[in-house]
Specification:
Layout (H helix, E strand, L loop, with lengths): L2 H4 L2 E2 L5 E5 L2 E6 L2 E6 L4 E6 L2 E6 L4 H22 L2 E8 L4 E5 L2 E5 L6 E4 L4 E5 L4 E6 L2 H13 L10 E4 L15
Antiparallel strand pairs: 1-6, 2-3, 3-4, 5-6, 7-12, 7-13, 8-9, 9-10, 11-12
């Protein structure tokens, strides 16, 4: 059995979990999330906990055991607290602003980048160069923030580019610093 999968997922007050037909749905104060799962894993709601058990002891089933436990835990956290990531846009003339359902960024190229904000996410941009992406789906928040970061990765000499707020960029010394 998976070490992660053995742990039950606690269901806080105000959250309902339903399991039916290979789909688990979690509904809370911030919204509702659904996830399909394989039939090798039995998911049962017992009181205020979700318990996962395996039908056999194969390697793939053990992997699913831990995976679905983590997914259900993230769904419960998402509908209660939500997830957010903060990106920092750093560079001379670099800026980001939200216009309706679009994130418009000037990143030093001849044209602006326009990213469509997916449904279920809220994006806010401050004038000091911070872009906050928030939502209830952890995977969607992480995917969209990584796509935005890919537009201009931080470079090691001056630190220009888009980075996560908690990311540390190892700075290099330029050619003149070697002497």
């Amino acid at each position: 059995m998976s070490k992660v999968g053995k742990l039950p997922v606690a269901i806080p007050a105000g959250v309902t979990v339903n399991v039916a037909g290979g789909v688990i749905s979690v509904k809370g104060p911030k919204g509702e999330l659904k996830q399909t799962f394989h039939d090798e894993i039995d998911i049962k709601v017992e009181g205020s906990e979700v318990v996962l058990t395996t039908k056999d002891n194969s390697k793939q089933t053990n992997a699913y055991h831990g995976l679905y436990r983590s997914l259900i835990n993230n769904m419960v956290k998402g509908v209660t607290d939500g997830f957010s990531k903060t990106l920092v846009v750093n560079g001379v003339g670099f800026r980001a602003e939200v216009k309706g359902k679009e994130l418009v960024m000037n990143l030093g190229y001849s044209t602006d980048f326009i990213a469509m904000i997916p449904d279920g996410l809220t994006v806010t941009a401050t004038p000091d160069g911070k872009v906050t992406i928030a939502g209830i789906d952890k995977q969607l928040v992480g995917e969209f923030s990584s796509q935005i970061r890919k537009l201009r990765k931080p470079e090691p000499y001056k630190g220009k580019g888009i980075r996560y707020e908690d990311e540390v960029i190892r700075r290099k010394v330029g050619k003149t610093g070697v002497k």
